[in-house]
Design brief:
461 residues; mainly beta; Jelly Rolls; elongated
Length: 461
């Protein structure tokens, strides 16, 4: 008699559990049974997992965990080399574990007046957004490592224990588009596609895709690879869309920028001098082309007036040329000594007597800028603990000293111990970590190259 085709009785969730079971068997013996950690205190659960994540409590077998799996005090939670996991704890904390990370919750108590959240990072890295425990009691939440303890005070932060792998990641960083030659006041940078910012100090690198934002009474002078320069005025947002220049291949140079709000003073460099078509400055109402130029731009209000502005003081883009020539959208040239207002997209510039603000910040060419200083130590990271603070405050505590970090600041403790030190910037390998970005935007398996785990749970012995 002919054999009938087999019919699968497993649901998609059941098949996912079976895959975990097969994997567990391959790891060396499995026993699906009630949890042996009932005496431990539940701290939260797994919200997301990619690849393989496990948990193990003292005296019990290894459990493969996935979305919905509960986690308990005493659990050592481990992610594989191409895996990640997101934990949501009962106080609202959210902890994202990087690949190849080992982490435990040593103590956890949400009871009022007895709050406590003690964590330990054995290896790897994590990003934490803390919950109400640290907000109720700033001294109740701490993350310990082999070299330092992090005091958590209503905080969002990254912690990374680095070995040689961090230096390898840093080698793959893109070449900076330029650097901040001078900074006064508060200036931050936001990487392309990122929600987190880093403080910008004099000498800090600037990358293609970065948005630079200046605070009130603050400004910065940026120096780019092709020797072009830009002074960012106060309350300005400016994005480096593309900047590339290689002296060996000058014909491939590009300089594309975007003034989103506020104002700037700019002088073109080698890209614009060689090929004006390879340089452009986008604004809310027009794109600026250059002809060997020095110029000022200021976006008044929303950047556009209904029907197009025609009178000084109205919203729109104001431009003044103090050297050379610019044009608007490939036409409407503006030469040295002229000032105009463009009130809306696709409208011609209107002559005005002067800019709407008194610009006191220097022209970028008038600010002495030396060659870029040596890159900060975090650009070629050595072994040790790196901590980057994004909200609230973090205290990096060692037996030698304590370094307090504010939002946008980072600290380091060497792998051999010793004192903590503050870094010049949030290390780019942390600020732009593709793993966190992939997990937080639910891209999931793509940046990790793994597979999404299910919610099944087995004990492996």
């Amino acid at each position: 008699m002919a054999r009938q085709p087999a019919v699968s009785l497993l649901s998609a969730r059941g098949r996912a559990r079976l895959r975990h079971l097969v994997l567990a068997l391959a790891l060396g013996g499995v026993m699906c049974a009630p949890a042996a950690f009932a005496a431990a205190i539940k701290a939260g659960e797994v919200a997301l997992s990619y690849g393989v994540a496990t948990a193990q409590s003292a005296g019990a077998g290894v459990r493969i965990i996935g979305p919905g799996s509960e986690v308990f005090t005493g659990d050592v939670i481990t992610t594989g080399a191409r895996s990640a996991a997101v934990l949501t704890l009962d106080d609202g904390s959210r902890i994202t574990l990087r690949p190849d990370t080992s982490f435990t919750i040593e103590a956890f108590n949400t009871e009022e007046h007895h709050e406590q959240a003690l964590y330990r990072l054995f290896k790897g890295g994590l990003r934490a957004v803390t919950g109400f425990i640290s907000k109720r009691n700033p001294n109740a939440a701490r993350l310990s490592t082999a070299v330092a303890t992090i005091g958590i005070r209503g905080t969002e932060f990254d912690a990374r224990l680095c070995g040689p792998e961090c230096a390898e990641e840093a080698k793959n960083r893109p070449v900076p588009a330029g650097h901040a030659g001078f900074v006064k006041g508060h200036v931050i940078a936001r990487a392309a596609g990122g929600a987190r910012t880093r403080l910008v100090a004099a000498g800090a690198p600037v990358y293609t895709g970065d948005s630079l934002i200046t605070g009130m009474d603050s400004y910065a002078v940026l120096a780019f690879l092709d020797k072009s320069r830009v002074t960012l005025l106060p309350n300005t947002e400016f994005r480096v869309e593309q900047m590339q220049y290689d002296e060996a291949k000058p014909e491939e140079g590009r300089g594309f920028f975007n003034l989103l709000r506020g104002g700037l003073r700019a002088v073109s460099g080698l890209v614009g001098h060689r090929d004006p078509r390879a340089y452009r400055m986008q604004t809310p109402v027009a794109t600026i082309g250059i002809r060997g130029t020095g110029y000022d731009l200021f976006v008044q209000g929303t950047g556009a007036s209904p029907g197009g502005a025609t009178e000084p003081g109205q919203d729109g883009l104001y431009a003044n040329v103090w050297q050379g020539e610019i044009d608007f959208d490939g036409s409407h040239p503006l030469v040295e000594g002229q000032t105009v207002l463009v009130g809306a997209p696709n409208t011609p510039p209107v002559p005005v007597p002067q800019m709407p603000i008194n610009i006191t910040q220097p022209k970028p060419g008038d600010v002495p800028i030396t060659v870029p200083p040596p890159a900060p130590s975090s650009s070629a990271p050595g072994a040790g603990l790196y901590v980057s603070c994004y909200a609230g405050t973090c205290a990096v505590e060692t037996p030698v000293n304590t370094v307090d970090l504010k939002p946008g600041e980072a600290g380091f403790v060497g792998g051999a111990g010793g004192g903590a030190e503050q870094l010049k910037e949030v290390p780019p390998f942390m600020a732009e970590d593709h793993v966190y970005h992939g997990v937080e935007t639910n891209q999931g398996v793509n940046p990790l190259g793994g597979f999404q785990g299910g919610g099944g749970e087995c004990s492996v012995r």
